[in-house]
Amino acid sequence: MLHLAKDGIFPITKDKDGKLLKELPASGLHVPGTIQGEGKLNGIPSLFIRLAGCNLHCTWKTLAGNTCECDTAYAAFKVENSFSLPIREIIQIIGHNRGNIDHLVITGGEPFLQADKVKELCLQLKKEAHFHITVETNATLYVEECAQTIDFFSLSPKLSGSVPPTPYAEHHNNTRINIPAIQSFITHVRKNKKEFQLKFVYSGENDVSEIQALLRQLDGWANEDILLMPMGATPEELNLSIPKTLEHCIRNGWRFCDRLHISLFGNKQGV
Length: 271
Fold this sequence. Notes:
- The protein contains nine helices and twelve strands.
- By secondary structure, it is of the alpha/beta class.
- Strands 1, 2, 3, 6, 7, 8, 9, 10, 11 and 12 form a ten-stranded mixed beta sheet that branches.
- Helix 2 (about 85-95) crosses helix 3.
- The radius of gyration is 18 Å and the shape is globular.
- Its EC number is 4.3.99.3.
Protein backbone atom coordinates (compact mmCIF):
# COMPACT_ATOMS: atom_id res chain seq x y z
CA MET A 1 0.00 0.00 0.00
CA LEU A 2 1.15 3.52 -0.81
CA HIS A 3 -0.21 6.52 1.08
CA LEU A 4 -1.40 9.08 -1.48
CA ALA A 5 -2.34 12.74 -1.29
CA LYS A 6 -5.90 13.65 -2.19
CA ASP A 7 -5.12 14.14 -5.89
CA GLY A 8 -3.28 10.81 -5.82
CA ILE A 9 -2.80 9.76 -9.44
CA PHE A 10 -3.41 12.62 -11.85
CA PRO A 11 -4.71 13.81 -14.22
CA ILE A 12 -6.79 10.75 -15.11
CA THR A 13 -10.07 10.07 -16.91
CA LYS A 14 -10.53 6.37 -16.10
CA ASP A 15 -10.66 4.27 -12.93
CA LYS A 16 -8.88 1.00 -12.17
CA ASP A 17 -11.39 -0.94 -14.28
CA GLY A 18 -10.99 1.34 -17.28
CA LYS A 19 -14.37 3.00 -16.78
CA LEU A 20 -14.71 6.72 -17.51
CA LEU A 21 -14.85 8.94 -14.45
CA LYS A 22 -17.91 11.15 -14.08
CA GLU A 23 -15.93 14.40 -14.08
CA LEU A 24 -13.07 15.72 -16.18
CA PRO A 25 -9.67 15.95 -14.46
CA ALA A 26 -8.59 19.28 -12.97
CA SER A 27 -6.77 20.06 -16.21
CA GLY A 28 -10.15 20.38 -17.91
CA LEU A 29 -8.90 18.23 -20.77
CA HIS A 30 -10.70 15.20 -22.18
CA VAL A 31 -7.49 13.15 -22.16
CA PRO A 32 -5.50 11.85 -19.20
CA GLY A 33 -2.08 13.27 -18.50
CA THR A 34 -0.54 16.71 -18.31
CA ILE A 35 2.88 18.18 -18.98
CA GLN A 36 5.86 18.42 -16.66
CA GLY A 37 5.84 22.09 -15.71
CA GLU A 38 9.30 22.46 -14.16
CA GLY A 39 12.90 21.60 -14.88
CA LYS A 40 14.89 19.85 -17.58
CA LEU A 41 11.84 17.83 -18.68
CA ASN A 42 9.59 20.88 -18.92
CA GLY A 43 6.79 20.36 -21.43
CA ILE A 44 6.98 16.55 -21.65
CA PRO A 45 3.61 14.72 -21.40
CA SER A 46 3.50 12.97 -18.03
CA LEU A 47 1.34 11.26 -15.45
CA PHE A 48 1.86 12.10 -11.78
CA ILE A 49 1.61 10.14 -8.55
CA ARG A 50 1.50 12.40 -5.50
CA LEU A 51 2.35 10.78 -2.16
CA ALA A 52 1.24 12.14 1.21
CA GLY A 53 3.49 13.21 4.07
CA CYS A 54 6.69 15.24 4.33
CA ASN A 55 9.48 15.68 6.85
CA LEU A 56 9.68 19.45 6.19
CA HIS A 57 7.32 22.38 6.74
CA CYS A 58 8.27 24.94 4.07
CA THR A 59 6.99 28.49 4.44
CA TRP A 60 8.38 31.48 2.54
CA LYS A 61 7.92 35.23 2.57
CA THR A 62 7.06 36.65 -0.83
CA LEU A 63 8.80 39.76 -2.14
CA ALA A 64 5.53 41.57 -1.39
CA GLY A 65 5.85 40.54 2.27
CA ASN A 66 3.13 37.92 2.28
CA THR A 67 3.43 34.39 3.66
CA CYS A 68 3.62 31.66 1.03
CA GLU A 69 3.36 28.08 2.25
CA CYS A 70 4.48 25.10 0.20
CA ASP A 71 2.10 24.93 -2.77
CA THR A 72 1.37 21.32 -1.91
CA ALA A 73 0.89 21.77 1.83
CA TYR A 74 -2.22 19.58 1.52
CA ALA A 75 0.13 16.70 0.66
CA ALA A 76 2.97 17.66 2.98
CA PHE A 77 2.16 18.98 6.45
CA LYS A 78 -1.54 19.92 6.21
CA VAL A 79 -2.48 16.53 4.86
CA GLU A 80 -6.17 16.35 4.00
CA ASN A 81 -8.28 13.63 2.38
CA SER A 82 -5.30 11.35 1.89
CA PHE A 83 -5.85 7.66 1.21
CA SER A 84 -3.96 4.42 0.60
CA LEU A 85 -4.01 2.14 -2.43
CA PRO A 86 -2.40 -1.22 -3.17
CA ILE A 87 0.45 -1.02 -5.66
CA ARG A 88 -1.43 -3.33 -8.05
CA GLU A 89 -4.40 -0.94 -8.16
CA ILE A 90 -2.12 2.05 -8.81
CA ILE A 91 -0.58 0.21 -11.75
CA GLN A 92 -4.02 -0.66 -13.12
CA ILE A 93 -5.11 2.99 -12.98
CA ILE A 94 -1.94 4.14 -14.68
CA GLY A 95 -2.33 1.49 -17.37
CA HIS A 96 -5.85 2.66 -18.26
CA ASN A 97 -4.71 6.29 -18.45
CA ARG A 98 -1.38 5.96 -20.20
CA GLY A 99 -2.21 6.59 -23.84
CA ASN A 100 1.04 7.70 -25.50
CA ILE A 101 2.60 8.92 -22.25
CA ASP A 102 6.01 7.46 -21.42
CA HIS A 103 6.95 9.65 -18.44
CA LEU A 104 5.77 9.12 -14.87
CA VAL A 105 6.55 11.53 -12.03
CA ILE A 106 6.47 10.46 -8.38
CA THR A 107 6.17 13.52 -6.18
CA GLY A 108 4.83 14.53 -2.78
CA GLY A 109 5.11 15.30 0.02
CA GLU A 110 8.40 13.46 0.25
CA PRO A 111 8.48 10.17 -1.69
CA PHE A 112 11.52 8.76 0.11
CA LEU A 113 9.50 8.53 3.34
CA GLN A 114 7.86 5.55 1.59
CA ALA A 115 11.02 4.34 -0.14
CA ASP A 116 10.35 0.60 0.18
CA LYS A 117 6.92 0.84 -1.43
CA VAL A 118 8.13 3.32 -4.06
CA LYS A 119 10.81 0.80 -4.99
CA GLU A 120 8.20 -1.94 -5.41
CA LEU A 121 6.00 0.33 -7.52
CA CYS A 122 8.85 1.35 -9.79
CA LEU A 123 10.07 -2.23 -10.25
CA GLN A 124 6.62 -3.34 -11.35
CA LEU A 125 6.14 -0.33 -13.61
CA LYS A 126 9.49 -0.99 -15.27
CA LYS A 127 8.63 -4.64 -15.74
CA GLU A 128 5.15 -4.09 -17.15
CA ALA A 129 5.09 -0.65 -18.74
CA HIS A 130 8.67 0.59 -19.32
CA PHE A 131 8.03 4.10 -18.02
CA HIS A 132 10.71 6.74 -17.62
CA ILE A 133 10.35 7.54 -13.91
CA THR A 134 11.17 10.85 -12.21
CA VAL A 135 11.16 11.32 -8.46
CA GLU A 136 10.77 14.81 -7.00
CA THR A 137 12.42 14.94 -3.58
CA ASN A 138 13.71 17.46 -1.04
CA ALA A 139 16.93 15.37 -0.98
CA THR A 140 17.05 14.96 2.80
CA LEU A 141 16.70 11.16 2.55
CA TYR A 142 18.60 8.72 0.34
CA VAL A 143 17.83 5.01 -0.06
CA GLU A 144 20.05 3.27 -2.61
CA GLU A 145 17.67 0.35 -3.27
CA CYS A 146 14.92 2.79 -4.21
CA ALA A 147 17.23 5.06 -6.23
CA GLN A 148 18.21 2.09 -8.40
CA THR A 149 14.65 1.93 -9.80
CA ILE A 150 14.45 5.63 -10.79
CA ASP A 151 15.66 7.33 -13.98
CA PHE A 152 15.64 11.03 -13.17
CA PHE A 153 16.11 12.80 -9.83
CA SER A 154 14.68 16.26 -9.26
CA LEU A 155 16.45 17.37 -6.07
CA SER A 156 15.02 20.42 -4.30
CA PRO A 157 17.07 21.31 -1.20
CA LYS A 158 15.35 23.93 0.90
CA LEU A 159 17.21 27.14 1.75
CA SER A 160 16.89 29.20 4.94
CA GLY A 161 14.16 31.31 3.36
CA SER A 162 11.87 28.29 3.67
CA VAL A 163 12.05 28.08 7.49
CA PRO A 164 8.55 28.32 9.02
CA PRO A 165 7.55 30.05 12.26
CA THR A 166 7.66 28.23 15.60
CA PRO A 167 6.90 25.55 16.63
CA TYR A 168 8.12 24.03 13.34
CA ALA A 169 11.23 26.16 12.79
CA GLU A 170 13.81 24.12 14.72
CA HIS A 171 12.99 20.74 13.19
CA HIS A 172 12.73 22.18 9.69
CA ASN A 173 16.01 24.08 9.99
CA ASN A 174 17.85 21.03 11.34
CA THR A 175 16.46 18.76 8.62
CA ARG A 176 16.25 20.84 5.44
CA ILE A 177 19.82 20.30 4.13
CA ASN A 178 21.55 16.89 4.09
CA ILE A 179 24.81 17.21 2.15
CA PRO A 180 25.69 13.47 2.30
CA ALA A 181 22.24 12.58 0.94
CA ILE A 182 22.49 15.11 -1.91
CA GLN A 183 25.97 13.85 -2.79
CA SER A 184 24.71 10.26 -2.75
CA PHE A 185 22.08 11.14 -5.35
CA ILE A 186 24.64 12.85 -7.58
CA THR A 187 27.16 10.02 -7.21
CA HIS A 188 24.46 7.46 -8.07
CA VAL A 189 23.51 9.43 -11.18
CA ARG A 190 27.07 9.74 -12.45
CA LYS A 191 27.88 6.10 -11.73
CA ASN A 192 24.74 4.83 -13.48
CA LYS A 193 24.61 7.34 -16.36
CA LYS A 194 21.29 8.83 -15.28
CA GLU A 195 20.11 12.45 -15.02
CA PHE A 196 19.38 14.86 -12.18
CA GLN A 197 18.71 18.49 -11.44
CA LEU A 198 19.30 20.60 -8.35
CA LYS A 199 16.30 22.92 -8.24
CA PHE A 200 16.19 25.87 -5.84
CA VAL A 201 13.42 28.35 -5.06
CA TYR A 202 14.53 31.98 -5.27
CA SER A 203 12.86 34.05 -2.56
CA GLY A 204 15.54 36.69 -1.82
CA GLU A 205 19.15 37.78 -2.23
CA ASN A 206 20.52 35.52 0.53
CA ASP A 207 19.46 32.46 -1.47
CA VAL A 208 22.21 32.92 -4.05
CA SER A 209 25.10 32.91 -1.56
CA GLU A 210 23.53 29.90 0.20
CA ILE A 211 23.35 27.99 -3.09
CA GLN A 212 26.95 28.87 -3.91
CA ALA A 213 28.10 27.69 -0.45
CA LEU A 214 26.11 24.45 -0.80
CA LEU A 215 27.56 23.73 -4.25
CA ARG A 216 31.11 24.14 -2.92
CA GLN A 217 30.43 21.12 -0.70
CA LEU A 218 29.31 18.90 -3.60
CA ASP A 219 31.09 17.12 -6.45
CA GLY A 220 29.88 15.89 -9.82
CA TRP A 221 27.56 18.72 -10.85
CA ALA A 222 27.70 21.16 -13.74
CA ASN A 223 26.08 24.59 -14.14
CA GLU A 224 23.48 23.04 -16.45
CA ASP A 225 22.30 20.90 -13.52
CA ILE A 226 21.52 23.92 -11.32
CA LEU A 227 18.04 25.39 -11.71
CA LEU A 228 16.72 28.53 -10.07
CA MET A 229 12.94 28.86 -9.86
CA PRO A 230 10.98 32.01 -8.99
CA MET A 231 9.01 31.71 -5.77
CA GLY A 232 5.25 32.01 -5.97
CA ALA A 233 2.06 29.99 -6.32
CA THR A 234 0.21 32.46 -8.56
CA PRO A 235 1.18 34.32 -11.75
CA GLU A 236 1.15 37.58 -9.79
CA GLU A 237 3.60 36.29 -7.16
CA LEU A 238 5.83 34.77 -9.83
CA ASN A 239 6.01 38.05 -11.74
CA LEU A 240 7.50 39.73 -8.67
CA SER A 241 10.40 37.29 -8.40
CA ILE A 242 11.05 36.42 -12.06
CA PRO A 243 13.31 39.44 -12.90
CA LYS A 244 15.80 38.79 -10.08
CA THR A 245 15.66 35.05 -10.67
CA LEU A 246 16.59 35.62 -14.32
CA GLU A 247 19.40 37.98 -13.36
CA HIS A 248 21.00 35.49 -10.99
CA CYS A 249 20.66 32.64 -13.50
CA ILE A 250 22.53 34.67 -16.10
CA ARG A 251 25.20 35.85 -13.63
CA ASN A 252 25.93 32.33 -12.40
CA GLY A 253 25.37 30.31 -15.58
CA TRP A 254 22.43 28.43 -14.04
CA ARG A 255 19.21 27.41 -15.76
CA PHE A 256 16.05 29.44 -15.28
CA CYS A 257 13.26 27.13 -14.14
CA ASP A 258 9.87 28.13 -15.46
CA ARG A 259 6.64 27.05 -13.77
CA LEU A 260 4.73 26.27 -16.94
CA HIS A 261 1.80 24.56 -15.21
CA ILE A 262 0.95 27.80 -13.39
CA SER A 263 1.00 29.70 -16.68
CA LEU A 264 -1.30 27.09 -18.25
CA PHE A 265 -3.64 26.20 -15.39
CA GLY A 266 -3.15 28.77 -12.65
CA ASN A 267 -2.85 27.84 -8.98
CA LYS A 268 -4.76 24.55 -9.24
CA GLN A 269 -4.21 21.14 -7.71
CA GLY A 270 -4.11 17.97 -9.79
CA VAL A 271 -2.77 19.51 -13.01
